[in-house]
Design a protein that fits this description.
The protein is an alpha+beta fold. The protein folds into three domains: 203 residues, Aldehyde oxidase/xanthine dehydrogenase, a/b hammerhead (Aldehyde Oxidoreductase, domain 3); 318 residues, Aldehyde Oxidoreductase, domain 4 (2-Layer Sandwich), CATH 3.30.365; 143 residues, 2-Layer Sandwich (Aldehyde Oxidoreductase, domain 4). It is globular.
């Protein structure tokens, strides 16, 4: 291959380096007005009245919108498909506030300053209601009826293995979830049972680009146009069309340059507000959230509590797994119920487990809304499962890496959650290569000596292993479409509904097309999502971009090559079997005829009066296993509780790296993100006031100076149905990070901590309790 496997810069690197890239927040349309939001100051209340007279009297104010003068219809921020069955539980402006930061009203004015001044003049009358930030209180009934009659939670239960495979919802009136049943098949005598508990805190995405949206309504053409850095332009269109009773063909949604998402721009919080404002004023409007607004009033990773119980034989074979999860959805359901359910369907993505039972519960609280986060349940599952395996390894006296190797899913293994093959999965190879690259055994011997000689500082190593997916199949049917046209000079314009987050998706697909057509990368133009111009697609979700859209693009390029060949043969009045396409040319096999792409395109246009174009639709029917093994070496200061990452190695089964340096960058960025989740990131909500933290001063990220050096190894075998054998990496790279770091900290301290984050306060508190107990 000439292009796939080389390093290419992302498609807009030059623009970004020069400061010329245009984000939604940079857009300025003629006559554009600005939106400022009024947020609920109370965690739970009915809105009795909204007084807007003072705000509306302010010069430059075009409209003040609230629950009494906007649509009464409800929507789901999570819906990305017309046929998706999800509860619609919120309005553009709600008449019942359910958390501090809920949408009360907005002002639309000529300038941002005027809009903010108008918001300050809005007066709201509230009837306060009981609230809770605690899942236990919600389960006890404190806020039953938060979304109408009924309990504040929903349950789910599923089991897999011999004589299993049932999948059902439990009656919401049932009591607390239990996972006490024991499997009866395949359990060996003498298996050791290990139960562990984990707590994951609420985590914010903290994207470089805050949330923003521009909307424009032309009352003469009755056309609504929305520009936003979203992950599903067609999904946004369906929600807005149904919400405002607008025919879909009158709505255009354009995906703008995106400065990161990690799932936070997969759901629709700003688009309904901006659309409502554009409809109200009959022109363009812009809404840009501050950092505080983005932290509190969009979505965050769900807090959850988990209990995991494994039975493992003395020689390290997993016999059964039981897990129970209670997940905090926050004030609106969003994706939380699906998110909780899918955790229980990912047990088999990298390990061979003969039996698993999972029970889950999603609970409403008066807190910020939980939503999609990089890996969509896989990182959460890995944290709770990998911690349990570490504790089990201690019990049976086995090396943690060896325990994982013995249970690694082999190539061809079946994912019991869907009865589909994992294909050429390379979990074992990731673990073995990582163990060697990281020098696992040597580090552990050196740490034993170091810890004996040092009282204050303690060192430890940890391993984390995790798998993920390549699209929705078979949970949801996954399909895509790509169109291509060749111009008279032989260059190619391709149309696909891409949603590049800023990490190189456009470049990766351009490289796939270029490799297939044997053209230079700069001879191909590939667009991003625009509902007026790109084919229907469900969006950049479930790590499907390269595996599904990339495969579609490759097939479409192959079809375009065939059209070239057949067109030249027709021009020459010859049999197509006597021609071939190679090296950017169409030639006869005897060498007598040779057309460059440009010559072929012109000849076909001139002689056949036909444009060279191809369209390809693809339905995905596979979802191979992908795995990553990460290894962390840490040093813990037992006086301060501070953790320093000394060394880090990551090995990933990727099938084929389309753009290897971008894959490595994805992994390195994921290590920084996962490190923060493991050690420092926490978005707390004050129990007495319901007020969330809303500033980076109190939300502690791992900064660049503290970032570890990350060695990356990629295992490539090309054995998948993805383009050139590629599999996903963007989300998979995040899955093993926190487990590896948690394991290293616990190894250093001889502890069993898994309440995240493992902050200095948490570590020193544990050490103080240990000292008292001794």
């Amino acid at each position: 291959m000439n292009i796939v496997g080389t390093t290419q810069p992302i498609h807009d690197a030059s623009e970004k380096a020069a400061g010329r890239a245009v984000y939604a927040g940079d857009m300025a349309l003629p006559g554009m007005r600005h939106i400022a939001m009024l947020w609920s100051p109370v965690p739970h209340a009915l809105v009795k009245a909204v007084h807007t007279e003072k705000a509306e009297a302010l010069p430059g104010v075009a409209a003040v919108l609230h629950c009494f003068n906007t649509t009464q219809k409800k929507f789901s921020r999570y819906r990305n498909r017309k046929w998706q069955e999800v509860p619609e539980d919120e309005r553009v402006f709600n008449d019942r506030m359910r958390f501090v930061g809920d949408r009360v009203a907005c002002a639309v004015a000529d300038t941002p300053e005027t809009a903010k001044a108008a918001v300050a003049l809005i007066e709201v009358e509230y009837e306060t209601l009981p609230f809770t930030t605690d899942m236990a209180e919600a389960l006890a009934g404190k806020i039953d009826g938060i979304h109408g009659p009924g309990k504040a939670y929903r349950d789910f239960e599923i089991e897999f293995g011999e004589n299993c495979g049932r999948d059902f919802l439990r009656n919401p009136s049932h009591g607390a979830i239990s996972s006490n049943s024991r499997p009866t098949a395949g359990i060996e005598d003498g298996a050791v049972e290990t139960e562990t508990r984990s707590h994951l805190s609420r985590v914010s995405h903290i994207t470089m680009e805050p949330h923003a949206c521009v909307a424009d309504y032309n009352r003469y053409t009755q056309r609504l146009t929305v520009y936003s850095p979203n992950q599903s332009v067609h999904g946004v269109r369906t929600v807005l069309g149904d919400l405002f009773d607008i025919s879909y063909h009158r709505i255009r949604v354009v995906k703008t340059t995106m400065g990161g998402s990690f799932g936070s721009k997969q759901e629709w919080m700003l688009e309904p507000v901006a659309a409502q404002a554009a409809l109200a004023v009959g022109g363009p409007v812009k809404l840009v959230y501050t950092r505080a607004e983005a932290m509190v009033s969009t979505v965050s990773r769900c807090p959850l509590d988990a209990v995991v119980t494994t039975r493992i034989t003395p020689d390290g074979r997993i016999q059964s797994l039981r897990a129970g999860v209670t997940l905090d959805a926050g004030a609106y359901l969003g994706n939380s119920f699906d998110y909780m359910c899918v955790i229980g369907k990912k047990f088999f993505r990298c390990y061979a487990i003969p039996y698993a039972r999972y029970t889950g519960r999603t609970v409403y609280t008066n807190t910020p809304v939980s939503g999609a986060f990089r890996g969509w349940g896989s990182p959460e599952l890995a944290i709770m499962l990998e911690h349990n395996l570490n504790m089990a390894a201690r019990k049976i006296g086995m090396d943690p890496v060896e325990l994982r190797i013995r249970n690694a899913a082999p190539p061809g293994a079946i994912d019991l959650s869907n009865n589909n093959t994992l294909g050429e999965i390379r979990t074992k190879e990731c673990l073995e290569r990582g163990r060697d690259v990281f020098q696992w055994e040597a580090k552990r011997r050196a740490d034993t000596l170091f810890n004996r000689q040092n009282k204050r500082l303690k060192r430890g190593t940890g391993v984390g292993c995790g798998g993920h997916i390549n699209g929705y199949f078979p949970r949801v049917q996954d399909f895509a479409a790509v169109d291509m046209r060749m111009a008279e000079d032989g260059s190619v314009t391709a149309s696909a509904t891409l949603h590049d987050h800023g990490c190189g998706a456009v470049t990766a697909l351009t490289m796939i097309i270029a490799e297939t057509l044997e053209l230079p990368v700069d001879r191909i133009r590939l667009s991003e999502g625009d509902t007026d111009h790109t084919p229907l697609d469900i969006g950049c979700l479930a790590s499907r971009t390269v595996y599904v859209l990339g495969r579609t693009a490759k097939d479409c390029a192959e079809k375009l090559k065939q059209s070239l060949l057949e067109g030249v043969a027709e021009v020459c009045r010859a049999d197509p079997e006597n021609f071939e396409v190679s090296g950017g040319c169409v030639r006869s096999k005897d060498g007598a005829v040779r057309y460059t792409y440009a010559e072929a395109a012109v000849a076909i246009l001139r002689d056949l009066q036909r444009e060279l174009r191809a369209s390809q639709e693809y339905i995905n029917t596979a979802n191979p296993g992908i795995a990553g093994a990460h290894f962390a070496h840490v040093e813990v200061d037992t006086y301060t509780g501070m953790v320093k990452i000394l060394d880090y190695a990551a090995v990933h089964d990727i099938g084929r790296a389309i753009n290897p340096e971008m894959c490595r960058a994805q992994i390195q960025g994921a290590v920084l993100m996962g490190s923060g989740a493991a050690l420092s990131e926490h978005l707390p909500v004050h129990a007495k006031t319901g007020q969330p933290v809303a500033r980076l001063k109190d939300y502690h990220l791992i900064n660049a100076p503290a970032a570890p050096r990350v060695r990356v190894e990629l295992i490539e075998d090309g054995g998948t149905e993805g383009p050139f054998g590629a599999k996903s990496i963007g989300e998979a790279s995040h899955v093993p990070v926190a487990p590896a770091i948690i394991g290293a900290v616990n190894e250093a301290l001889g502890s069993a901590l898994c309440s995240l984050p493992l902050s200095p306060d948490a570590i020193t508190a544990m050490l103080a309790e240990r000292e008292v107990a001794q």
